[in-house]
């Protein structure tokens, strides 16, 4: 296997609220929207000497030869999606960009530069392009004028806080909020808490940035198959949205969740944040069906392993 190291700018771009999108328009239309915006991205990349590395769910990972080209491409993608909504549906993207050393294997790339870019995409707000202070330092003077500091965070593998910048890609910014950054120390953003670990019977599934979604249900096509007549064929999903994991119920009989140290709650046709650890029962309460319990807890390794 051939491996090499080189400097690149890595960009992650993700559709904001994809879970709500699938619920609002249905799986078929949502997939058409995703494909349409992916086509927009791949069409724009050559103008900025960029390359699509891979797609991860509804997220794309691209690389560029330098930070300037990456920032220009990210801005063009944001503007294009805003002006020409894919498949006629308005969407908003959140992006993370970081430049530095990467390890190249065939057509894929790995390393801490990739991890940082993925983290920035997760914490960026809708229509934001987040970059690190080290990437900001690499920009040409004209592009530095369209970036401003917005928060601090301790990046993976570092011990001191880094300043994160927001690229102002729009010519007009009517919704731009004044920042206190220059007059007082802003709070630190939370770091990477790791992935979500699921245990069911003999299965052990680790949800993370590379594996952001699983399905639960009676149908054999589901990732976790629960053979019970009270379980819907496609009962629920567990999905990564930004830095958090949500259970989304789409069933007839609902889903029951018991967080550690708290009484069980029922979820029907809505989503709930899976924080901490606990257990899940699909279709029936725990007392009614103690045999089909799915355990969940956080995997404290990095959420953005690549």
Structure write-up:
- The chain has two domains: 3-167, Nucleotide cyclase, GGDEF domain (Alpha-Beta Plaits, 2-Layer Sandwich); 195-299, Tumour Suppressor Smad4, CATH 2.60.200.20.
- It has 306 residues and is an alpha+beta fold.
- The protein has helices at residues 18-25, 27-44, 67-83, 112-123, 133-138, 141-144, and strands at 3-15, 51-56, 59-64, 93-105, 108-110, 129-132, 147-153, 162-167, 195-200, 203-207, 213-217, 224-225, 236-241, 244-249, 255-259, 265-267, 271-273, 278-282, 293-299.
- Mean pLDDT is 88; it is low at 177-183.
- Helices cover 21% and strands 36% of the residues.
- Helix 1 (18-25) crosses helix 2 and helix 2 (27-44) crosses helix 3 (67-83).
- The strands form three sheets. Strands 1, 2, 3, 4, 5, 6, 7 and 8 form an eight-stranded mixed beta sheet that branches.
- The protein is globular and about 65 Å long.
- It is built from six helices and 19 strands.
Secondary-structure blueprint:
Layout: E1 3-15, H1 18-25, H2 27-44, E2 51-56, E3 59-64, H3 67-83, E4 93-105, E5 108-110, H4 112-123, E6 129-132, H5 133-138, H6 141-144, E7 147-153, E8 162-167, E9 195-200, E10 203-207, E11 213-217, E12 224-225, E13 236-241, E14 244-249, E15 255-259, E16 265-267, E17 271-273, E18 278-282, E19 293-299
